[in-house]
Amino acid sequence: MSYFVYIIYSKKLDRYYVGHTEDLDVRLIQHNSGFSTFTAKATNWVLVYKHEFETREEARGREFEIKKKKSRKYIEWIISAG
Q1: I need a labelling partner for 62 at 20 to 30 A (CA). Which of 24, 34, 48, 51 fits?
Q2: Edge to edge, what strands does the sheet with 15-21 contain?
Q3: Which SS3 state, helix, strand or coil, does residue 29 take?
């Protein structure tokens, strides 16, 4: 089974969200339907980046690394490089 770190973007909020999941399609539907508290303020989230990992621990670790930077520029760099 594969796990993914993903970044989604809302044009309405002009914000990015970083997460990890094993099913990108279902997770994006959840974000756009108000299932997730942080992303419930918008319904126009689009996937702008994904990276596949073999284990949940690897994906969770990479998600934490990205979030730890607390940098929009870093997130935009990842997207452009990816």
Answers
A1: 34
A2: 15-21, 3-10, 45-53
A3: helix
